[in-house]
Amino acid sequence: MLLPDSKILLHDAKRLLDEINHLYSDAIHAEEIPPILRVRVKQFLDNVNASLEFAAFEIFNTYCSEQVKQIKRKPKDFERHENSIYFPVWDSKTAFDNYIDTKFVSLRNEQPDIVAILQKYQPFPTRPKWLRTLKDLVNTNKHRNLSKQSQRHVTHIKNLEIHNGEIKNFEGSTEQYISFDDIDQPVLKTLKRIFASAPTVIEDLEKIL
Fold this sequence. Notes:
- This protein is of the alpha+beta class.
- It contains 9 helices and 3 strands; from the N terminus they run ααααααααβββα.
- Helix 2 packs across helix 8 and helix 8 crosses helix 9.
- It is elongated and about 75 Å long.
């Protein structure tokens, strides 16, 4: 099984990220953040999220749907189960295991390598949280408005000497960036971190599907 839809979405996400990078360089010095930047960010997040959702549904459809049909004999019950299939994002292994065993019926027994890959990217404690960040941002954009963004100016002080109220020696740097208000994280760094990780999920799945 290949994952063509997921790869197309990620390819388009890369194009959007390149455009966002260009818009960002202009917006960071503008008086107001242009709406087009927020729109492109939403489109990028939606594409990356959809690439993972499509992969999850392919896994379900290939390895689990027939078993679920035997359990959910009424078409409406099966449809309800099918509609609850998402790429898993859980903060604990217990919750992850419960979701896999409940929704991806028989997958653990028949395709344990797939379960291992899905588990590998979960935002469990001490693990990277890019997947949780992606889901939170997608949900914010879906249910409210486009994610609010603010310009930030941060000064990093390495060494500072003050004599008689005057600065005599200063070593440091200033940083200007646009931040997601909801998660208090820099927009561009966050998107790049997400895109650095999401394609590896699809690559890992392709190796065994």
